[in-house]
Every structure is written in C-alpha cells, then in structure tokens.
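Issue 218. Parser rejects a valid record. Input:
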Amino acid sequence: MTDMVHGAVPSGAGEAILPRWWRTIDKISLGAVLALFAVGLLLGLAASVPLATRNNLPEFHYVERQAAFGLAGIVVMIIVSMFSPRAIRRVGVLGFGAALGALMLLPFFGTDFGKGAVRWFSFGFASVQPSEFLKPGFVVFCAWMMAASQDINGPPGKRVSALLAVLVVGLLAMQPDFGQAALVLFGWGVVYFVAGAPILLVAGVIGAVFGAGTLAYHSSEHFARRIDGFLSTDIDPRTQIGYATNAIQQGGFFGTGVGEGQVKWQLPDAHTDFIIAVAAEEYGLVLVLAIVALYGLIVLRSLHRLTRERDGFTRLAGAGLACMFGAQAMINVGVAVRLLPAKGMTLPFVSYGGSSLIAAGLTVGALLALTRYRPQGEMGDILRRQGR
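Output the parser choked on:
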C-alpha cells in the first residue's frame, strides 16, 4: 500500500515519465520553491558582495557559487520528486545511514572554520555539513519504523526511532549544534505525534528537553552565551543580533532601497544566517512577509494534500518533512527578529551554502514526491487486500 497516494487522477499506463510527473506534481508548491530560490539570488547579489570584497575575491564569487549550488539543488529536487514513496523510503534510509556515519566521524576529521563548532568536512575547494543531509533521512527512517510498528507482528518502531533520536541529538549537541539538534527532535516529535503518541510521552519529552537545555546552559559556554544574549534586555549594537535588529528597524515597511542597506557590510553572516535582515533593510517588511508566505504556502499545501493519504508511511514521512522544512525557516526568521536565541541555521533555498541548498532540494523533492496524485482504490478494496 506504500505506493498508493490520494487522488483520483487516471493512472495513464504507458504514459511518459515527464508528462505524468507534471500532471501529478503540486505545481503551486514547486513554483513557490522556485520563487524562494530567485529571492535568494536577489538577496545574494546584495549580501555577498561585501564579503567577497573583504576576502579579496571577485565581487560575484559567492553569488555565482550560490547559483551553481542552487541549480544543483533544484535538479536534485526535480529528480527526487519523480520517485515513488517506496523509492523515497529506500533512498531515505540509505541516506540516513551514510549521514549518521559521517556525523560520527566529525570529531576526528571535521573542522569548525573558526566558528567554535565542528560541523563540516573541509575538502579545500568545498565543504560538507552532514547534519543538513541527515535531517530528511532521519525523518524518512522514523516514518518507516513507526508505520511498520502498526502492522501485525511489526517491529518496535517507536522505541527504535526514540533511541535513534537520542543518539542523533547527542551527536549534534557534542559539536555543539543545538539548533540542528532541536530541529531533528522536532521532526521526530511531529512523526510520533501523527503516528499517535501518548500525551504522557509528549509531556516527558518536553520535560527532558527542558532538563537538557538547563544542563547545556551550565556546561557549555557557547550555549550559555547565546541564551544570555537573547534574554538580556540590552542589545549590544556591535553583535550580529544588534546589527540585524537595527537593520530591520531601518527598513520599515518598504525598505531603504535596493543597494542602500548597510547591514551587509557589518555582518559576517549576512549572506547565510542573517539574510532576512538584508531583505528587511533594503526591501522592507513587504518582502519579509512575502518570503514567510511562500514557506507557509509550501507547508500548508503539503499538509492539506496529506490529509487524505491512506498509506501510513507516506502520511508520516510527508508530515515530518513539511513541518521540519517550515520550522527551519521560522527558526531562521525568529533569530533575526530576536524571537529566538541565535542558532546558526540557514534559510532554505534563500541563504548561501552548498550543503543547505542541496539538502533543501532533497527534502522538498521527497515532499513533492509524497504529495503527488496517484490512483488508488476504495478503502474497502484496500482493507480486503490486506486481509488476504
């Protein structure tokens, strides 16, 4: 039943792959992703030129790399969106295994690029952040385990996924990368909630997260510094949050004008973690709301298409991927407007970063594949086939 997805579109036996893909794909969500990528290039033209100047590189060095990585991410997204749910499950499980192995090797072969957190493998000409690729694979693996646990004599999928969640969150916290750890835990929680998590377990997880946060605050100077900066009533204007806050205030509703912003010359991460501050300063609240609306459109349309889904794995994996994708965007925006402590997290399809762009392509490609229209029988027919 894994290959059955909601919808009553004729199967079109013998139909070519591309026409069938175009007929069944969520074109509005696909268009929203392309719009986000276009916005990212527009903001990259503004935000990355000062960084290239400081590093004695050609002015459009980072923009050209963002375009190349972004196009690669779009190609990956389109290819993955053509997969069946069964293929998504297989690729996701294998990808999760590879990414988990890479994450375990980071303490020995990784680098921090002077940022205080060992998150990347550096190859000289490029770098890879394994946690970006681990997230979609982890959600797919957990969805597979939890869906399988609902079968008669199925594996203890919920317990297995919970143990893996603890392992992954622990490895990410060791880097330290508490932002990605929180996002992974959130993705697992969404899948577990949709699968039918007992309320006592949800309360226990919330309590454990609070306890772990308290422990991290007292044991990690990196974590404590970010929390203290977030809770402080006074904002140091020389910090990244200070520069971003001032830029957003200066931008107002319509912005200061194209190329007129100053925050891109002050922030070292203006092209990645704080790209939304550049958007707010030069284009104003109008563009920020448009960006948020595009993310909301993708998430809500995906969840709506999944509400009629009958296959357990597809429903769980799709919900987890959609919510995690939206949560990452909201965390990035929340940090920039000081609703959340600094996390060091990119804005999908908009921020600069090869790993982020390609991993976002994988995530949304899998989501588009799981929300495609496919023919299926009546519920009674499906239950009779299961009973044989």
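Fixed in the parser; the record now loads. The mean pLDDT is 84.
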